[in-house]
Amino acid sequence: MSARLRLGVNIDHVATVRNARGVGYPDPVRAALIAAEAGADGITAHLREDRRHITDDDIARLAAGLSIPLNLEMAATDEMLAIALKHRPHAACIVPEKREERTTEGGLDAAGLHNHLAPMVRALGEAGVRVSLFIEPDARQIVAAVSLGAPVVELHTGRYAELTGAARAEELKRLADAAALAAKNGLEVHAGHGLTLDNVAPVAAIPQLAELNIGHSLIAEAIFTGLGPAVAAMRAAMDGAR
After folding, report:
1. Residue 229's CB: how many other CB atoms inside 10 A?
2. DSSP line for 151-182
């Protein structure tokens, strides 16, 4: 039997709802605590450059108030590096970011940005922050992650989530092959983006994966069932796949 797969819950869109009215609720920190009680192994929050959902204050309160690991998703900028070094979350996942995108549209070009990323990866690692690179399931990007000294990669599952039929099966194989290659090269392998109760099981069954990071579908389901039950249902689906 494969090892237990960790669940990281992304609470960005609790902040999206809060910010839509410009009020103090719903509070993403409260959501994080509920998710932890329901079985989340970690909390993920993306502090975007435009602060469209998570804010600097949210990161400070999450860092101070969580008893489970905080994973800070961040663009590869000097501003975000300084924030990560200030708060020293358990992990920092470096992601590509465009101001006009609704959500992250693809993986980081770790190979093309090697010289830009290298000092950031080094500085975060020296500060005791576990560095993850959010990449496409592509051998070139995995080799780049190894070269950069990042201990973790997170494979982008957005394309898998959008496809159907034979095309989805092909993308699932691509994810599985990338996970195997990354693990063979000593990387811890995570995955995320677009995962739901309906599509998570085949990804969760990939034996080399150590963690899935899931957000939007959980917050959406929480509207109908509550956040605790939504997290518990995802936890059960992941466990069932193992």
Report:
1. 13
2. SEEEEE-HHHHH--HHHHHHHHHHHHHHHHHH
Answer for the pair 229, 27: CB distance below 8 angstroms, yes or no. Answer: no
H-helix segments, 185-226: 200-204, 216-225
Find how far residue 61's CA is from the centre of its chain. 19
pLDDT tens by residue, 139-162:
999 999 999 999 999 999 999 999
List residues with catalytic annotation.
46, 73, 193
List the helix and strand counts (H, then E) for the chain. 11, 8
pLDDT (tens digit per residue) in 50-74: 999 999 999 999 999 999 999 999 9
DSSP at 4: P
**CA gap 129, 86 in Å, rounded:** 11
Q: How confident is the model at residue 110 (pLDDT cuts 50, 70, 90)?
A: very high
Three-class SS of 32-62 = HHHHHHHCCCEEEEECCCCCCCCCHHHHHHH
Q: How far is CA 92 from CA 14, 17, 62, 153, in A?
A: 20, 24, 14, 11
Q: Are the beta carbons of 111 and 148 closer than 8 angstroms?
A: no
88 token code pair: 């020293």
